[in-house]
Specification:
The protein is α+β, with helices and mostly antiparallel strands. It has one domain: Lipocalin, CATH 2.40.128.20. It contains two helices and nine strands, in the order H-H-E-E-E-E-E-E-E-E-E. An eight-stranded antiparallel beta barrel has the order 1-3-4-5-6-7-8-9. It is elongated.
Length: 153
Amino acid sequence: MKIMKSLFLACACATLLIFANCGGGGGDDPVAAPTAAQKNATLLDGTWKLNSVTNEGTPRDEWTGFTLTLSLDDDFKGGNYNTTNIPDADTEGVWASSGTFTASEDLTVLTRNDGTKITLQVSASTLSLSFNISESGRVDGFDGDWVFNMNPS
């Protein structure tokens, strides 16, 4: 009888030990879906090359070779941009060679340090930037609605 008690106690302890080590989720815990900002940040961060550009619906061929590099801060609330191949005639009209920006919560609107609000539509293969340049304080001929369509570089 003493052996039965010892065996029963050993089995009970082993059973408790086994169940105590069982994890609650087993990997089935739901993973939080990325936020809109996280998705857009993953897509935006990097260098984009120009596909096409229009001003007031008119194609602007002088922007050939233009690139835009976006670098987002870790909190996705802003960042820096750098550009290359700005046309000679556009000294400060549409894009500066570099600057900073703040971002909307979902990263669909960037506000450059010059106050220009840029609406973004981004996917893995395209970036569309739409903004308006007003006449006040800008170089003549660069005002109006601009749309830059870009591809990853």
